[in-house]
Amino acid sequence: MQTYAYGYPRLGRKREYKTLIEGFWAGKIQEAELVAGLEALEAERLETYRRFVDRFPVGELSLYDPMLDTALILGLYPNGGRLEDYFALARGEKALELTKWFNTNYHYLVPEIPFAGGQPPTFRVAWNKPLEAFQKFPDGLPYVIGPYTFLRLSKGYPPEAFGVLFRALIPAYAELFRALKAAGAPMIHVDEPAWVTDVPPEHVALIREAYTALGREAELLVFTYYDSVDFLEQLYDLPLRGIGLDLIHGAENLETLRRAGFPSDKILIAGIVDGRNVWKTDLRKAARQVEALRQWTSAGIWISNAGPLYHLPVTVEVETRLDPALQERIAFAAERLKELSLLKTLLTEGETEAVRRWNAPVHPIDHWHRPEVQERVRRLRPEDFSRELPYAARSRQQRERLSLPLFPTTTIGSFPQTEDLRRARTAYRAGKLPEAEYEALIRERIRYVIQIQEELGLDVLVHGEFERSDMVEFFAELLEGFAITQHGWILSYGTRVYRPPILYGDVHRPRPMTLKEITYAQSLTAKPVKGMLTGPVTMLAWSYIREDIPVHEVAFQLALAIQDEVRDLEAAGIRVIQIDEPAFRERAPLKRRRWPEYFDWAVKAFRLASRARPETQIHTHMCYSEFNEIIEYIDALDADVISIEATRSRGEVIHAFEHHRYERQIGPGVYDVHSPAVPTPESMEAIIERAIRVIPPENIWVNPDCGLKTRRWEEVIPSLRNMVSAARRLRERHGAAVPTP
Prior knowledge:
By secondary structure, this protein is an alpha/beta fold. It has 25 helices and 20 strands.
C-alpha cells in the first residue's frame, strides 16, 4: 500500500507566492530575491509531502500557470529565459486569453496553436522544466501536463486539424520523456484531466495511438480527475505504469472497476480523498471502498487525492474563530495529506486512536438548521420561477423609465480597492478602527466614484463596492449558514486569491445586505445606480457547500435570500439591479449528458432570485464562458441585460449569437480588466462593430469585461474615458443623438 498526493497549494501558508511575484511586478524585489523565495517555498511544499505521503510530483510550481509553462516547454512561444517575456504572455498588452480550468474557479491561460497553411507548428522541447525540477528534487516524480489535455484546452486551430496537431505533438513529448528517463526518473506524473470530458471516438483512437508509443519511452502514471473516464477499459492494454482515477466525483469509474476490474500489470491510483470540498473523509468508509477495490482487482493500489489539492486552502490549523462544530468536521490540503497517512494506517495496521479521533466530532450541529427556511423551499410553485411580464413588455417599460442613449455605458460593479482601503478594512475587522470612521471612509469613496463616473460621462453608475472584500465572501458574511475563514485563501489565477466561504447550514438573510451603500450612492446622482448582488449559482460554486441535502435545495435557499434583497432595493427606488453569475457555465457538469439536470435547477435558481417587478431592469454578468455551448440556457435566464467577456477572446464570443436569435440586451466587454494596458477607443469600437453584425445596435451596451477592483486608478480613469469616447463615436456613426459630455 502506497500513498500518493499531488497539486498541493503553491500559495504558501502566509501567501508567500503572491507576495513574492507581486513584489517583483512592483519593482520592490529583484529577480534573484524572487527566485530564492520561490525555491524556499517549493522546498517547504515538498517537505510537507514528505511528512505524510510516500510519493509526490516535483515541478508543479509555476510562476503564473502550468498551461503557459507547457506551451513554453513545447516551444510554442519564443522563450529567451527572461521573466519579462514570461509575464508579458500572462498579463501584458497581448496576454493570452484566460478561461476556467474545467468546471472549477481556477483560470488558466489558453495557448494559441498556429495552423497556417494547413501545417502544424514544429513542436520541440525548448525548455525542459520537468527535468530541472527532478534534478533539484530527485525523490519526486517529474510533473507534466499530457498532450491530449494540452491540445484540447488550447485554441487557434480548426476542429478538423486536431488529429494532425496531436500527432505533431507526440515526438516532442517522446523527447521529453526520454530525457527524464535518462536522468533517472523512475516514473513520470502525467496529468490528463481532459480524458474525463466528452471524448469522441476518433480522439480515443488518437489517445491509444499516442500512449502506445509514449508508454514505451518511460514509466508513465497518468492522472485523470474531476469526473469519470468513459473509455476506461480502452486504456487497460496500453503500456502505462499506472492510472489515477477520481473515485469521489467519478462514480462511473467505480462502476467500471466493479464490472470490469482493473489490469494487474498496472498501478490503480485510487482518488479517494476529496480535493475540492472540505468535509473530512470518513476513513472507515474509505477503507471499505479500498477493500472492495481489492476484491475487484489484483493490481497494486495506491491511495491518493481525487483531484489536485490547490482547490483547498493550505491548512485548518491556523483558523481560530470557526464554530468548533465546524472546525472539527473539515480538512484543508495539509489535512488531506494527513488523511491519506491515517487511511494507510487503518488499511495496514487496523484502527488506531488517531484514526478513531479523526471521525469522532464532539460538538452537535442542531443550530445549523432552520425549519422555516426548509419549509419556504418546499412551498415553491412553478410561477415562483417566472417574472410577471415577458421580456418585450418589460423592455418597453424599462426603456421609458431609464431614458438611456444608444450604446449606454456602464461598468461591471467594482472600482479599485487601494492599499489604504484594504488596510482600513483590516483594521476595522480587527477592532482597531471605529465603525463610524470606517463607514465615513466608505461614504467618502462612494461620493468620489459617483463624481468620477459623472465626469467621465457614464450612463448607468455603480457605487464601487468599496465595502466588499470579495463578491461571494461579502454576502456570505451577511447570510446565516455560511462561515468565513481567516486564512483560507486559494488561487483563482496568477496571483489573484480569494477565500471560499463554507456553506454548512440553512441559508437565511437576517437583514438587508446592500441597501445602505447603494441608496446612499443613488442619493448623490440623478442617473441610475445599479444594485449589485451575487447570484445563487456563483455563491454556491465559489463556496465549499454542504453535502447533506440535494444541491438544488441549497441553490433555492440562496435564491430566496437574494430575492428578499431585490425586493428591498426595489422598494427603495433602485431601478437597475445586477445579479452576477460568472460561475453559471463553470458549475456545469463536464459530461454533456448531465447538463439538462444541472441547467434546470441553475436557471430556476437565477429566475427565483431575479423575480423583480417588470419595470426593474435586471442585469447579469458572466465571464470566460463558452457561450456558443450554453446560449439556450443563458436565454432561459430571462435577464434583461447580460454583460460578457469579449476582449481576450478578440470578440469571438459574438459567434454564439450568430446562430441563436437572442432578443435581449448584451454588453460585450470591450476592456480587458486583467491587463494593466489602457485600451484605445478604436480597439473598443472594433468589438462593438463586430457585435453589430449580429445584434441590433439598440440592444448593445458598452462596458468592461469584468470588475475593476484589482486595477489602479491611473489605469481605470483613462480606460473608461476611452470607453465613453468610443461609445460617443459609435452613436455618431450610427445616427444617434450624442449627449453633451
